[in-house]
Specification:
The chain contains 31 helices and two strands. By secondary structure, it is mainly α.
C-alpha cells in the first residue's frame, strides 16, 4: 500500500472492520439499562457505517475503485435489493425496516451485514491483513473462553456484571450460539496448526484456543455443532491425506502424507460426543448447571407457515422480520397441546428457510443463488492448486470456517454476532481467493474522465450522506431503547411510576414504537389502580384524575395500534384499558374492549389466552353465560388450559354449583400438580360440602407444597378435628400460633381446643368468608 492519504483511509476502514469482527462476540455494556443484544447490534452497525464512510472518503480522494471479480458480489447485491423491496412492501414497514432494536431479520441489520461481506475483500488487500483478521478472532476466542472458564470455576456470581446471573448467560447470544462460536474456533485453530508455521507466541495462543474450543463444545454439547464439526473435520482430514505435503516436502497425493493429528483429534472427539457422549454430557451439565432446552419450529412446521404465507404474498412474502405474524395466523394444529402453545416464534427452523416466508419466492431464490454461488466457489477453490502454501492456508481456513457458519444459517437461527461473523469470514474467504490468484480484480479509475467522475462523485456523496444518516438513526434508536430499558428497570425494581413514565416518554420522543406505547398505557393503568385505592383523595380530585388517567391510557394504547395495526398485542393493550373501567358501568367501555379483543383474536385466531381474556371481560360485565361460552372456545383450542378451567370453577362457585366447581378444580389440580393454591381451593370446596376426608387430602397436599401456607394449615386443622384427628388439629394450630401470633382466629381455635370444644367457627359458610389468617 502506498503512503497516500487514501491508503491511510483504507487502513482506517480496515481497522474499523477488525474492531467490528472482534466486538461481535465479546461486546457488552455492563448495565441493566442497556439491552445486551440491542447495544451489541448498534455497535456492530456503527462499526460497519464508519468503515463504509471512511472508504467512500478515500474513493473521493483518489477516484479509484477496485473489487474482486466474483459472482458472489452480484448475489449479495441481488439479495440486498430484494430484501429492501420486500421491506418497503411490508404491511408493517417499521417492523421490517428496523424492528424494536435491529433484530437479525430487519433490513437495518441484514443489509449492512451484506455490505460488510462486500467491503472486507476490498479493504483487506494483503495476505497479512487476512491473517491479522484471524489473530483478531483468536483473541476474541480467548476472551470469551476464559470468561466462561472463570465463571464455571467461580460460580454464576463471578464476572456477572449484574447481567449474567445464570451460568449459561453470555455476551454472544443463546447458549447454543456459544457452541457455534467455539466450533468456529476449533475449525480455525486446527487448520492453522496443520497448515502454517507460527511463532512461539502465536502457536501458544492458537493451541490455547484449540483446547478451549473443544472444552466449551463439550460443555455446551449442541449436537448439530458436533455433526458439522465431524463432517468438516473428516473432509479436511481426507483432503490433507490427498493433497497435503509430507513432512519431508515430497509431492502430494500419496499415502506418505503427514497425518493431520489436530484434525484427527477433533474428528475423534466430535464422533465420541456425538454417538457416545450423552451420559458424560449430562453429568457435566448437571455439575455446572448448564442444562438448557431451546425450541424452534420443525422443518414441517416451517414449511406449513411458508405455504400459507406464500398464498397471500407469493412474490415478496410477509415482509422481513414478520415470521411471527404468519406463525400466529397459521399456527400448525397440535401446537396448543405442547408447552410452547403461547410462544410467538420469530423464525422457523433456520434463518435462511425463514426467508421464504418473510421475503417470498424472490427472497428465497436470491438467497439460494447467493449461497449456491458460494458453495460452487468453495468447491472449485478446494480442488484448485494454490499459488503459495500461505495463501493456500488462508483459502482453506476461510473456506471451511465460512462453510461451517453457513450450515448454521440454514439449520439454525444464529445470533446477530454469529451472523456478522458468517458474513465477515465469508468476506475473508473472497479476499483469500483474490490473494491466491483464484480471483481477478476489476479496477476502475475516474481520473481525467469528467463524466464518469461527476457520476461517481455524486453517487459517493449520496452514499456517504446515507451512511452518516444511518449512523445517526442507529444512535437515536439505541438511546431510545436505553431510555425505555431504564424505565422498565425503575418500574420493576422500585415501582417508581414517575421515573418509569419519564423514561418511557423520553423513549417515545426519540423513537415512537408500539412497545413503548404499550408500556406507557400500562403505567397509566397502574396509576389508575393506585387512584382507586387512595382513601385520602377527595371525590372531586379523584374524578378529575380519573378522567385524565383513563384518557391518556386510551391515547397511548390507540397510538400503539396506529403504529402497528398488525400486532395483536397492541389490541390486547387497548382492550385492557377499556376493560379496567367496565365494572364502573362507564358507557361504551365494554363495547370498546370487546371490539379490541375481537381484533386481537382475528390476528391470533388460535390463541386460547385471548378467549380467556374475553371470558374475564364477560365476568366483569356479570354475564356468566357469555363467559362460559368463551371458556368453552378456549378449551376447544387447548383442552388442558388450566387458567380457563380455574376461571370456570370461580364462576361455578359464584353460582353455588359446588359439585361442578370441584370437578373443574380437580381438573386444574391434575394439570398443575405443583400449585398449592389450587389444592387449597379444592380443599375448601370439599370442606364446604362437608367432605372432610377429601378436604384433608387436598389441604395436606397444599401444605406439603408450601409449608408456610397459613390458611391451608388453618383449614387443615379444622378438617383434622372434624375427622377425629384432634392431636393433628392441635399441632397445626400450635404451629400457626408461632408463625401468626397476632391471628385472633388461631387464638380462638387454640382456646376452644384447650377447653375441649370444637375449634370450628362456621363450617357451612367458611368458603364465602374472608380468609381467616394473614399470609406472611
Amino acid at each position: 500500500m502506498t503512503p497516500t492519504a487514501s491508503s491511510k483511509l483504507d487502513r482506517i476502514a480496515f481497522y474499523a472492520l477488525q474492531a467490528t469482527l472482534f466486538l461481535a462476540p465479546v461486546f457488552f455494556i455492563p448495565s441493566m439499562s442497556v439491552p445486551l443484544q440491542t447495544g451489541k447490534s448498534a455497535v456492530l452497525l456503527i462499526g460497519i457505517t464508519i468503515a463504509v464512510a471512511v472508504w467512500l472518503i478515500a474513493r473521493l480522494k483518489d477516484g479509484a475503485f477496485s473489487w474482486p471479480k466474483t459472482w458472489l458480489y452480484a448475489g449479495a447485491g441481488i439479495l440486498g435489493l430484494v430484501y429492501a423491496v420486500s421491506a418497503l412492501a411490508s404491511a408493517n414497514q417499521a417492523a421490517s425496516l428496523s424492528g424494536q432494536g435491529f433484530e437479525l431479520g430487519t433490513l437495518a441489520f441484514f443489509l449492512p451485514s451484506l455490505v460488510l461481506f462486500m467491503l472486507i475483500p476490498i479493504v483487506t488487500k494483503t495476505e497479512k491483513q487476512v491473517f491479522y483478521s484471524y489473530v483478531t478472532l483468536f483473541i476474541a476466542f480467548l476472551v470469551a473462553g476464559l470468561f466462561h472458564v472463570i465463571r464455571f470455576a467461580g460460580g454464576a456470581g463471578t464476572l456477572s456484571f449484574g447481567l449474567f446471573t445464570d451460568v449459561t448467560a453470555n455476551f454472544i447470544g443463546k447458549w447454543n450460539d456459544v457452541g457455534i462460536f467455539f466450533g468456529l474456533g476449533a475449525i480455525l485453530s486446527l487448520i492453522t496448526l496443520e497448515r502454517t508455521p507460527l511463532s512461539r507466541l502465536l502457536k501458544t495462543i492458537v493451541y490455547i484456543v484449540f483446547v478451549l474450543s473443544l472444552v466449551m463444545l463439550v460443555v455446551v454439547n449442541f449436537s448439530p455443532v458436533w455433526i458439522a464439526l465431524a463432517v468438516l473435520s473428516l473432509v479436511f482430514f481426507i483432503y490433507e491425506l490427498s493433497y497435503g505435503k509430507r513432512s519431508d516436502g515430497a509431492t502430494r497425493g500419496n499415502l506418505g502424507t503427514r497425518i493431520p493429528y489436530h484434525t484427527l483429534i477433533t474428528l475423534v472427539v466430535a464422533a465420541i460426543f456425538l454417538f457416545f457422549g450423552g451420559r458424560m454430557s449430562s453429568l457435566i451439565a448437571n455439575t455446572l448447571g448448564t442444562s438448557q432446552v431451546e425450541v424452534r419450529p420443525s422443518w414441517s412446521a416451517t414449511l406449513d407457515i411458508t405455504k400459507a404465507a406464500l398464498k397471500d404474498n407469493p412474490i415478496l412474502g410477509a415482509g422481513p422480520n414478520r415470521f411471527a405474524t404468519e406463525w400466529l395466523m397459521n399456527k400448525p394444529a397440535g401446537i396448543n397441546s405442547t408447552l410452547f402453545w403461547n410462544t410467538d416464534f420469530a423464525y422457523g427452523i433456520g434463518f435462511i428457510p425463514s426467508l421464504a416466508t418473510t421475503t417470498g419466492l424472490l427472497g428465497i431464490l436470491a438467497a439460494l443463488f447467493f449461497v449456491g454461488t458460494f458453495a460452487w466457489t468453495a468447491v472449485r477453490a478446494l480442488l484448485k492448486e494454490g499459488s503459495s502454501p500461505f495463501s493456500r492456508y488462508l483459502v482453506l481456513s476461510s473456506l471451511f470456517a465460512s462453510a461451517y457458519l453457513w450450515i448454521f444459517a440454514a439449520i439454525y437461527v444464529p445470533s446477530n454476532a454469529i451472523w456478522i461473523l458468517t458474513l465477515g469470514v465469508s468476506g475473508l474467504f473472497v479476499a483469500s481467493l483474490r490473494e491466491d490468484k483464484a480471483l481477478g480484480t476489476r479496477h476502475i479509475s475516474i481520473v481525467n474522465r469528467p463524466a464518469a467522475s461527476f457520476v461517481s462523485v455524486l453517487v459517493s456523496v449520496i452514499a456517504l450522506i446515507g451512511a452518516v444518516s444511518f449512523g445517526y438513526f442507529v444512535a437515536v434508536k439505541t438511546v431510545a431503547n436505553i431510555y425505555y430499558q431504564k424505565g422498565v428497570v425503575a418500574l420493576n425494581a422500585t415501582s417508581d411510576l414517575d421515573k418509569g413514565e419519564a423514561d418511557v416518554l423520553n423513549a417515545i420522543s426519540l423513537s415512537p414504537t408500539p412497545l413503548y406505547y404499550q408500556s406507557l398505557s400500562e403505567i397509566y393503568l397502574a396509576r389508575l389502580n393506585n387512584l382507586f385505592n387512595d382513601t385520602k383523595i377527595t371525590q372531586t380530585d379523584a374524578q378529575t384524575k380519573f378522567q385524565s388517567l383513563i384518557g391518556t391510557a386510551i391515547q397511548a394504547a390507540q397510538a400503539a395500534v396506529a403504529a402497528d395495526p398488525t400486532d395483536y398485542k397492541n389490541y390486547m393493550t387497548l382492550g385492557r384499558v377499556f376493560e379496567s373501567v367496565v365494572p364502573l358501568n362507564i358507557e361504551g367501555a365494554y363495547d370498546s374492549a370487546k371490539k379490541a379483543y375481537d381484533q386481537a383474536l382475528a390476528l391470533n385466531p388460535q390463541s386460547p389466552e385471548i378467549r380467556l381474556v374475553m371470558a374475564r371481560l364477560e365476568v366483569a360485565k356479570k354475564d356468566n353465560e357469555a363467559a362460559k361460552a368463551d371458556i368453552a372456545e378456549a378449551l376447544k383450542l387447548k383442552s388442558d388450559y388450566a387458567d380457563a378451567i380455574y376461571l370456570l370453577s370461580q364462576i361455578q362457585i359464584s353460582e353455588n354449583d359446588v359439585d361442578e366447581a370441584i370437578k373443574s378444580v380437580s381438573a386444574v389440580a391434575t394439570l398443575s400438580p405443583s400449585d398449592p393454591g389450587i389444592f387449597f381451593q379444592l380443599g375448601l370446596l370439599y370442606y364446604s360440602k362437608k367432605d372432610y376426608p377429601n378436604s384433608v387430602l387436598a389441604l395436606e397436599r397444599a401444605v406439603s407444597l408450601n409449608s408456610q401456607y397459613a390458611n391451608a394449615k388453618y383449614f387443615l386443622g379444622l378438617a383434622y378435628y372434624l375427622t377425629g384427628s384432634k392431636d393433628k388439629s392441635l399441632s397445626e394450630f400450635q404451629e400457626l400460633s408461632v408463625s401468626n401470633p397476632d391471628s385472633q382466629e388461631v387464638k380462638d381455635a387454640l382456646a376452644a381446643l384447650a377447653a375441649g370444644k370444637s375449634p370450628v367457627p362456621a363450617p357451612s359458610s367458611a368458603v364465602n368468608k374472608p380468609l381467616p389468617v394473614k399470609e406472611q
